[in-house]
Amino acid sequence: MRSTSLLLFIVIILSSCSTEKKAIKAFKLGKYQNAIDLFKKTGNTGKSNFFIAESYRLSNRPKESEQFYANASGRAFDADSIKFYYAQALKANGKYDEARQQLESLVASTSNTPLKDRASAEMNGIGYLAKLAEAPSYYKVKNLEAINTPASEYSPVYLNSELYFTSSRGDGKIYEAEGKPFTDLFKVVTKGANVEISSLAKLPEGINDNVRNEGCITFSPDGKTMIFAKGNSEKKKGGGADVDLYISRFRNDVWSEPLPININTQFKNESDGDAKNFSWDSTPAFSSDGRTLYFASNRKGGYGGTDLYTAQMDTRGRFTRVRNLGPEINTSGNEMFPYVAEDAKLYFASDGHPGYGGLDLFVVKRSNGKTQIKNLGQPMNSNSDDFAMFLFKPDRGFFASNRDGGKGDDDIYTFINEDPDLRVVNYYLQGITYTPGKDGKLQILPSTKVNLLDGKGDVMQDYVTGNDGKFLFRVYENEDYNLTGESSGYLVKRQGYTTRGKSVDPSTLKELLTNITLDTMIVLEKIELDKSFVLENIYYDFNKSNIRSDAAKELDKLVQLLLDNPEIKIELGSHTDSIDDESYNRQLSQRRAESAVSYMIQHGIATERLQAKGYGESKPIARNTNPDGTDNPEGRQKNRRTEFKILEVGTVTKPVEGDEQFEEDRYFRE
């Protein structure tokens, strides 16, 4: 009898060990639902509770993780991290006081500085909620019941009276990370928020397939370019273990075969040796002009979790200049689901900024060149995940949430903003690129690349003009910019522009949406050898050659011109009027030219690119005296000038921005 009991005990132990090994393997493979089911069979231990809690968290189910983090333990596990994630689970379940207690305890005890900082930020965020509750809210939300099911519906995008969204509805193959069917992309005809459910359809095969998740779609403004996220399968050619962005174009009334775009990133994880790992690149969104793509990624070099990035689309349809949006927007948590509204405000979801729990919706407002981040408050946000905002009018739109009271998992909601003072003002800067003709009159210069730079000198937008020479940029009130114009055979032109003093008071406007267009022009000079360009306002004290502060400002512009045009070498020529004798004037002008050249060398221009030349009074451009012999002060002033002329045009290899060529280059050349 005792031997039978012992044998049964051994069988149970071996079975438990075998189940635990399978559970750990499932966890490592990211099959979190399988891991949960298996660990629940191994018994209620600190170890099993830890892995179940982690599996729920990593599959985006923090509410379910609470009881398991509360009972998680084990020498191999970091107790501080367990306490932090336990606090987040409490917060997700609306237990703010209990969450604060856990965070206070963690801050007081941990020696992990990054974790302490994040816990402190979470504590401050809980305190921030009380202040947020005091602010008035004009939002009203409603579940879009016609679309939602007990499955997951999210990432709504409205285009041409059709609502596109992601859903796990159906009885397809199960995604083992979450224990749910794979997601697909759908569309349905809507008039605003009124759904014609009979028109509901899945996007065609090729876009969707049954072995990968598809979701998070965005369209260019003309509706002819689609970018969406697709989970990879190692069985698929070029597929990795995570999520990439794919592009398709609408040609001949069909969507082309989707191809991965060139900003997807794969990298090597040092802990895995030579094993390839793919970053998570998802939740794409085009800007309103279709030239900038916003997306989220957990690629290396970010601030933690997933960060928001931008990439610029070039004239070939490839994406370049991938840029992290920086620590004002990105946190050690997760930022994702960016959306740029018509008024250029950036909306996004985050669990790193102060919020109610899970993902909250935030808006980024620009003011005087600075960003302000605001939580949209309740009822737009809850202690659940609230994300994927999209406006189909300035005061109404869609978002997704898995809050209590929905139909099941993630649901799509509609909202309206009834703020009586809501006024949307868009500012645009339009201009034309010109060049002087042979007769001196300005003529349009086509095919010119124009860049809009912010106050830090970073390129915000670029534009290549057509035959009409026109360009257009989205700008913001009370900000300073620089514009640069580039065209082959012409000097790069740089000039400032400010919107300060050019804005309107929204309270004076009657319409909900107002567009204001500002005007400018850029004049590019053709590169011609020995052609002279007069530098305005280069003055010297009488009989002296030192650089005055007002002259320095003008020479700084020439320094910038040479930096912008690294292929040219110039002569800097100084001229005088006819006061004093010719020999003295030539010596004085030479000293002045050399002084200016020395100043430019000190400010970063290579010596071999500069040549100083003093012309004295030998090349007047105006009369020093009038025909009757009297003095001509205006003429003398014109003759006391500094000029530069191009001596040589070399060849400079400029670095090419962007990532390596990918297979889709073939696609873009078609």
Notes on the protein architecture:
Residues 633-643 have a biased composition (Basic and acidic residues). It is found in: Cell outer membrane. Residues 527-650 form the OmpA-like domain. Keywords: Cell outer membrane, Membrane. It comes from Dawidia cretensis. Helices cover 23% and strands 34% of the residues. With 670 residues, the protein is an alpha+beta fold. The chain is built from eleven helices and 37 strands. Mean pLDDT is 86; it is low at 6-14, 234-240, 267-276 and 655-670. It starts with a helix and ends with a helix. Strands 8, 9, 10, 11 and 12 form a five-stranded antiparallel β-sheet that branches. A hairpin with a 2-residue loop joins strand 2 and strand 3. Helix 5 (79-92) packs antiparallel against helix 6.
| Biggest β-sheet strands, sense, barrel | 5 strands, antiparallel
Q: Which runs of at least 5 residues are low in confidence (pLDDT < 50)? A: 6-14, 234-240, 267-276, 655-670
Give the CA-CA distance, first to last residue: 79 Å
Overall mean pLDDT score? Answer: 86
Number of strands: 37
By helix and strand content, what is the structural category? alpha+beta
Fraction in helix: 10-25%
Strand residue percentage: 25-35%
